[in-house]
Design brief:
Strand 12 and strand 13 form a beta hairpin. The longest helix has 27 residues, at 254-280. The chain folds into 2 domains: 3-137, Rossmann fold, CATH 3.40.50.2300; 148-351, 3-Layer(aba) Sandwich (Chemotaxis protein chec). It is of the alpha/beta class. It is built from 13 helices and 13 strands. Strands 6, 7, 8, 9, 10, 11, 12 and 13 form an 8-stranded antiparallel beta sheet that branches. A 5-stranded parallel beta sheet has the order 2-1-3-4-5, with helices on both faces.
Length: 352
């Protein structure tokens, strides 16, 4: 008897990757949705005996979706597929009723084991069955609308989605390391992608309090025609809590602040770039990290350090915050305008 499978992810690339990685001989109808609200509607309409669910999504994220499934008594079996791989994320989704947890990108081998455990029926080797399966895999996946600003500069709209997705997976590795070091839960929003004039970078940043004092570290990277800088902006109000979590005792003097700043930068920037290298099959050479400024406004930091380097930048911004503690920072990946063509070439293999 045929089974219905629902794939819920805001990334078109992620949905297609997961569908392609599923076993080819499943007796299943596969459909797609882009956020938790759409998933709940589909589940209540009878689609999705098995739900593959992302965690980091707009409108309604994976945690909220799991809570609603539990509250409404929906009987679907949920497998979380996420770039957020920190221990507390895995623990939470299992407590909310998920049947399993898979890190992105999901491999065919891992999905085959999950499908076997869930007893999803298989088709025979009849070519007609395989044709029907191919049709079912395409059902309802109409994609996510691209960012209109970035679309003006990037060759294909699907690539904007791909930039978000590969960054989401990379920062998931970074958040995992930070969460393990501090024994905390790190909140991660969906990355924001813009290709803009560098002079407009300050306006593009999603800061709730633009006058708050910050400190910043920058680290350059280059490889395979791609050049850029990783910029970590650390809220000064975070020093006390993060120093305590990292085992520092006594007063937080200027030397301790620099040490904390360097430690956090090494974790987040290093892990994020490593995650990008793995997905894009390249190697970055990295410069030594530099402190750009301390106890300044975000506008002062960016105005002093970015405007003379290049005119346009592909800016990808990710905000990190720690649940229950006053720890916040932003990681920006700033690629030169000339790097976009090389990035598109690499990303093209993932998109197509």
């Amino acid at each position: 008897m045929s089974c219905s499978i629902l794939i819920c992810d805001d990334s078109s690339m992620a949905r297609k990757q997961l569908a392609r990685a599923l076993p080819q001989n499943l007796d299943a109808q596969i459909s797609f949705v882009t956020n938790g609200e759409e998933a709940l509607s589909a589940l209540e309409n009878g689609d999705g005996e098995i739900l593959f669910l992302d965690l980091t999504m707009p409108i309604l994220d994976g945690y909220g979706t799991l809570e609603a499934i539990k509250q409404r008594g929906i009987s679907s079996k949920v497998i979380v597929v996420s770039g957020d791989i920190q221990p507390k994320a895995r623990q939470r989704v299992m407590e909310l009723g998920a049947h399993g947890f898979i890190k992105k990108p999901a491999s065919a081998e891992t999905l085959a084991k999950v499908i076997e455990q869930l007893h999803v029926p298989r088709l025979s080797d009849d070519p007609g069955n395989k044709a029907n399966l191919h049709q079912s895999r395409q059902k309802k996946d109409e994609g996510v609308a691209p960012d209109s600003l970035a679309q003006q500069f990037v060759a294909k709209a699907d690539y904007i989605d791909a930039y978000r997705e590969i960054t989401n997976v990379a920062i998931g590795r970074a958040a995992d390391l930070l969460a393990r070091l501090l024994d905390v839960f790190v909140r991660m929003p969906v990355p924001r992608v813009n290709l803009i004039e560098v002079s407009e970078l300050q306006m593009a940043l999603n800061y709730s309090n633009r006058e708050e004092a910050c400190s910043a570290i920058c680290q350059g990277f280059i490889g395979a025609g791609i050049a850029g800088e990783a910029l970590l902006i650390f809220h000064d109000s975070s020093y006390q809590d993060i120093a305590r979590q990292m085992g520092y005792k006594g007063l937080i003097d200027p030397d301790t602040e620099i040490e904390v700043l360097m430690d956090v930068a090494n974790i987040l920037i290093g892990a994020c770039l490593k995650g990008l290298e793995t997905q894009l099959d390249l190697t970055f050479s990295q410069s030594h990290p530099q402190v750009l400024g301390q106890h300044l406004s975000i506008d002062e930091i960016l105005k002093t350090n970015t405007q003379e380097r290049w005119k346009k930048t592909l800016a990808i911004e990710v905000g990190f915050s720690v649940e229950g503690l006053n720890i916040e920072c932003d990681l920006l990946l700033l690629y030169t305008e000339q790097s976009v063509a090389f990035l598109n070439e690499r990303i093209g293999y993932l998109v197509e």
